[in-house]
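Troubleshooting log. The previous run stalled partway through. Resubmitting the same two chains, unchanged.
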Amino acid sequence: MLLFRPHLWIAARWLPVGAKRRSIEQLLARAMPLGGYAPYRGLDPELILAAVRATTARPWRMRGRRCLREGLLGFRFLRLAGFAPVLHFGVEPESVSTDHLRAHCWITLADSCVLNPPSDTMVRLFSWDGEKRLAPSTLESTNSLIAASRSYNLNGLTLSVIAPDQALCACLESFLAPLAVDARIATGWEVRISREDTLPNLQAGELVWEGDLPEGLPAVMRRDGADRNLLVRDHLALSTDRRRKRIDVVVRPGREKTLRGTPSVSIVAEIIRGSGLFLTHSACLLLPRTDECILIFAPSGTGKTTTSLALARSGWRLVGDDATILQMHGTELRVWALPRGLTVHRRTEELLPWLTDAINPWAGKAEQSVPLRSVSPFIGHATPVPRRCRATVMLDMPNGSAHMVFPIDRSEALLRILSDNLRIAPDGMGDYDRSLLDAFAALVKHTMLLRLSVGPDLQSLGSYLTGRVQPIISDSPAA
Amino acid sequence: MINLRTKLQLSPDVTFRSLGDGQGAVVVETKTGQLYTCNDTTTAFLEALDGTRTLGEIVDELHCIFDVDQPVLESDLNDIAGELLNNGLITPIPPHRP
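Second attempt completed without errors. Output:
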């Protein structure tokens, strides 16, 4: 990497030599590195392009063609960093009939313009991907073969996934699909996925956690400063760069399915963590006919999904049943949930027979993943936007007689929340953990707290809980 | 062994969050994640531990807050301090030697 800037400096002076005598094809060929040579793999494209702009700021050749000068150099060095840029050429239609034809050159990376964006009126003549010219009409489909990208807007927290194909690119779709946006978002977090035979060595840093993922795969998480890395042995490696808002994921060929499981949750968790928000293990629902939330906390496998579905079937609206985000909005707490699919146990279907129409046959399994869209025709659901939280419910074990709610002390509630949500690394709590503790303390201080034990009649649960919660929060100010 | 002249401080590997309105606090051991709940008296005691005051001075301060006889409060806080010390949540500050 030390050679990058000297190399760039030399190339900035070498590329334009003889430019006046050369055809555009010859210039393009000069800009293309030989073979798959990519010594600057790992460099940030923004850093590369900033260096290109700085290096070409005071040209001594091609002075009248700044965009071409920057385009050729930027294209070459993005290639040398392992990217697949596309160089585009266009003209301003109004200038065609004048003596001064206004042409322009720009670069896109994964369908997003990264250098010298054209004007809205610019007409693209052709594009070049390093091997051949591309007509404008064929460009989009060809780009999708080079790289696929998807962008999401998580209530102002934006992220783009860039991958060599659509299948890898869709790794976050199962729980972020409702938050997808059409246009590529150039700012925000970037998740860059590649498929390589050899995983990077992620042995540096302090051990945070080592063990098996829920899928049974051995994994190690390490912390390097504020950044955390996850290695799923022989499957994939995930490294976070919080300063650059970037997550790099390397997946071994044939192991793509692993990415869709727990590692995809880790990706979103790292982004949420790196953005000062808090991901909690709780369900988020709206009270009937209101825009106010309650959160339900309970360890895995103790009835959170069943309770959430029963409530959402009877007037409440489900935002998410498992992954709720806490965010401080000034001094106020706001909550929303990742719209991820539900993990439904067989017992849940027995308790909620209407669920049969929304799920697949069990085929011997004890639980299955059910997309939200499959259950949404049967329940009330709401968009995952930040809202006030008015009540926090601690779910007790169900009972065989009737629904029951009890008061609960703040300290007892916080203890139960922390027991399921605070994970301490071997080297102790970090700043994020302390902030998480503050957020949970604010939650229990500013919301109505209760314990709920669900009885056998799930059809009546919605009206029962509404009757207990609604009158109290109607009389109390919002958090 | 502690007495009224002992100065105490929160252990460096401990943090706590007071929950207000007479609802006590939750104490967290930052190295292990061990959690404790505590009542209002213990919370007030933990909040008073600034590493400069003696146990006797803290008793005097809290006597102004809690409606309880001083000997009873002194005995209670002595018990609380002993329990917190045993659990490693607070530590005595060695006397300054010139």
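Takeaways: The radius of gyration of chain A is 27 Å. The interface with chain B takes residues 409-412, 414-415, 418-419, 422-424, 428-429, 433-434, 437-438, 441, 444-445 of chain A (CB under 8 Å).
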